[in-house]
């Protein structure tokens, strides 16, 4: 049987077999044989079988000739290499070696989790993965802005028999089953963490020994949380103060794990929000203790030398203006849908000479001058890490395709055509990745695996946990309009597979299913068909990530530190189209 791993950008990194179809691997310690809608329908979505130039089918070699000619005739500084997360395999990044050498501009930061990642690094030094064993040993699990049922379903068995608390402006499926659901107003997580910390402080519930030995600057944190007045802050969050007090008590008496998701950090102060949640946890000494910890999307780059790390000129990914470049090389991404202010991205894609290197005729490929078909994950060799658990999956080449090309093959071709040297063989790169892993039976674990992370020390300069004591937040929460929240969709992986076109609103809007609205923000406008849902917070409207229209409304900006997109840093108004 041919074992491989799901390549999609997902916490779970499912192990599976290719027989006639893709089947889950029942022996994998975490994913245990279950695949989701996306992988179960992987072959229902037609993939590119040809290259295209100006809309006409052409041979792959011809496409490579056009690519070479275009790059040789361009000023490298006016060429942008933009790589997304359509496939999470490590070999995707091999193309950086060519583009950096050529002198193109690359990107820095992300559309995804870089804000939260920095928040964690500032407190703990490194964003290590919390091993599943610790989640198993916990008593209380707080699911904070993560829709585990749809984005991380293989963690559900670990929640059995635990007390589950959900903090989310949406009544998600797990919120409906949880012991407690704090349906907070969007963008009030920092305040909630602060109020929980206040209760713990007032009850002197801190872990004194941990504070003394493992942290620094707790006094500043204590002053910081005291600067938030309780009654107005709880009012702003929009929940019952007794619920906040109850949760603070539960956290003091039970082994607690917090599963923090992407939802809390799609804001300008996303770094501080995640650091605040970490600081709350540190106050209780939840690091390095059995059955405790905070798990965000873990850093998969810890513990080995990345062979594809390059020096180059870079622009901020979330804010890049495509129209400033003459040539765009878009790989593994569909920015016409997934970029903030997607209409601006579309203008830039139309203006430049655009090359798309992907597996679908997606919205971006339809606008491209040149489309180069990539091999899918079954047709090339790769390896992928998970950001949700400690297992690493191999993805050996199981079939082939003559019409498509892999990332490594394209890089090799370009190195040869440009007369560059120094590219190692594909096997050598893969061996380098595998050599740093920890083998356990038939499976591999991450090189940075620690049974109980941070039990010895933190990875900051001082070796101590550093509390947050300041936040820069200028968003006008009182301005009129609805918060726009854009969580992940069950049937799509961002823009891939079956996306959802609707705008979900609360019944108090008096809108009805099927009505059409125009929605507008400071950044743009878009039209949607309405779906009414009791599950959405009254002050918010919701569209799923991958909705082809929704990013016309989102800001082309980065967070306070310039790392991440801020998809939810916006309020919108809606008008019924009569
Ligand atoms: N099915 C599916 N799975 C996926 C993906 C997909 O597209 N589809 N995408 C993958 C990717 S790229 C990523 S990054 C991960 C992310 O997966 P998650 O971490 O689950 O993140 P999201 O779905 O973006 O948002 C999670 C939750 O945050 C809530 N939320 C929104 N705003 C706020 C807020 O202000 N405060 C709080 N507390 N909660 C809020 C949303 O209602 C949602 O329930 O999922 C991965 N898995
Ligand atoms: N409003 C809003 N927008 C969001 C988000 C949100 O929460 N709200 N989430 C953001 C997040 S977290 C993320 S991660 C981004 C993701 O956004 P993108 O990086 O654009 O990712 P996808 O939409 O998954 O995939 C894009 C393309 O990858 C290509 N692809 C798939 N496999 C391969 C391969 O093996 N090789 C190559 N060369 N190409 C391949 C396919 O052609 C596919 O169309 O979206 C962001 N956009
Ligand atoms: S998308 Fe996630 S849940 Fe679905 S098969 Fe892939 S790794 Fe598993
Ligand atoms: Mo993401």
Bound molecules: ligand MGD, iron/sulfur cluster, molybdenum atom
Question: Which residues form runs of ≥5 with pLDDT under 50?
Answer: none
Helical segment count:
17
What best-fitting shape do the alpha-carbon axes yield? globular
In whole angstroms, the N-to-C terminal distance is 58 Å
Provide the number of structural domains.
Answer: 3
CATH class of the largest domain: Alpha Beta
* pLDDT averaged over residues: 97
CATH topology of the largest domain: Rossmann fold
Sheet having the most strands:
6 strands, mixed
Q: Structural class of the helix and strand makeup?
A: alpha/beta
Radius of gyration: 24 Å
Strand order of the largest sheet: 5-4-17-16-15-6
Identify the CATH architecture of the largest domain. 3-Layer(aba) Sandwich
Helix content: 25-40%
Q: What portion of residues belong to β-strands?
A: 15-25%
Number of strands: 30
């Amino acid at each position: 049987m041919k074992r491989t791993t799901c390549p999609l950008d997902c916490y779970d990194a499912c192990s599976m077999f290719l027989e006639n179809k893709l089947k889950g691997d029942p022996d994998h310690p975490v994913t245990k044989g279950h695949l989701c809608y996306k992988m179960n329908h992987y072959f229902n979505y037609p993939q590119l079988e040809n290259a295209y130039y100006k809309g006409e089918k052409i041979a792959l070699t011809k496409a490579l000739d056009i690519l070479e000619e275009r790059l040789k005739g361009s000023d490298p500084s006016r060429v942008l290499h933009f790589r997304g997360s359509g496939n999470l395999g490590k070999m995707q990044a091999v193309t950086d070696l060519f583009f950096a050498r050529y002198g193109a501009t690359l990107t820095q930061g992300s559309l995804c989790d870089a804000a939260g990642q920095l928040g964690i690094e500032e407190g703990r030094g490194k964003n290590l993965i919390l091993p599943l064993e610790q989640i198993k040993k916990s008593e209380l699990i707080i699911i904070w802005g993560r829709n585990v049922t749809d984005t991380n379903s293989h963690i559900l068995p670990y929640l059995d028999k635990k007390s589950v608390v959900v903090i989310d402006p949406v009544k998600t499926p797990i919120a409906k089953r949880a012991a407690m659901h704090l349906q907070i107003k969007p963008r009030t997580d920092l305040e909630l963490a602060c109020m929980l910390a206040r209760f713990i402080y007032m009850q002197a519930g801190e872990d004194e020994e941990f504070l003394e030995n493992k942290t620094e600057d707790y006094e500043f944190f204590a002053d910081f949380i005291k600067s938030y007045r309780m009654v107005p802050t709880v009012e702003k969050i929009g929940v019952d103060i007794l619920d906040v007090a109850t949760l603070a008590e539960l956290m003091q008496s039970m082994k607690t794990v917090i599963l923090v998701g992407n939802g809390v950090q799609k804001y300008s102060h996303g770094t501080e929000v995640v650091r605040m949640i970490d600081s709350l946890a540190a106050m209780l000494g939840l690091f390095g203790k059995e059955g405790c910890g905070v798990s965000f999307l873990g850093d998969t780059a810890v513990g080995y030398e990345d062979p594809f790390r390059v020096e180059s000129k870079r622009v901020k990914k979330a804010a890049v203006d495509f129209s400033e470049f003459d040539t765009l090389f878009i790989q593994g991404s569909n920015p016409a849908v997934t970029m903030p202010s997607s209409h601006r991205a579309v203008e830039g894609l139309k203006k430049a000479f655009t090359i798309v290197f992907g597996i679908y005729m997606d919205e971006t490929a339809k606008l491209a001058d040149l489309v180069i078909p990539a091999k899918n994950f079954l047709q090339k060799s790769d390896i992928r890490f998970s950001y949700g658990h400690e297992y690493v999956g191999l993805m050996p080449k199981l079939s082939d395709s003559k019409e498509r090309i892999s990332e490594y093959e394209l890089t090799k071709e370009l190195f040869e055509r440009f007369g560059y040297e120094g590219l190692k063989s594909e096997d050598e790169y893969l061996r380098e990745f595998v050599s740093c892993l920890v083998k356990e039976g038939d499976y591999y674990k991450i090189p940075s695996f620690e049974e109980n992370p941070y039990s010895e020390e933190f990875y900051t300069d001082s070796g101590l946990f550093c509390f947050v004591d300041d936040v820069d937040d200028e968003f006008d929460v009182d301005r009129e309009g609805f918060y726009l929240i854009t969580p992940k969709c069950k049937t799509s992986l961002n823009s891939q597979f079956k996306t959802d076109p609707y705008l979900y609103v609360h019944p108090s809007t008096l809108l009805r299913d099927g009505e059409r609205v125009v929605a507008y923000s400071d950044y743009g406008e878009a039209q949607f068909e309405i779906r009414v849902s009791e599950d959405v917070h009254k002050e918010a409207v919701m569209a799923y990530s991958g909705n082809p229209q929704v990013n016309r409304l989102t800001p082309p900006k980065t967070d306070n530190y310039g790392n991440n997109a801020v998809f939810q840093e916006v309020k919108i108004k809606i008008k019924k189209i009569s």
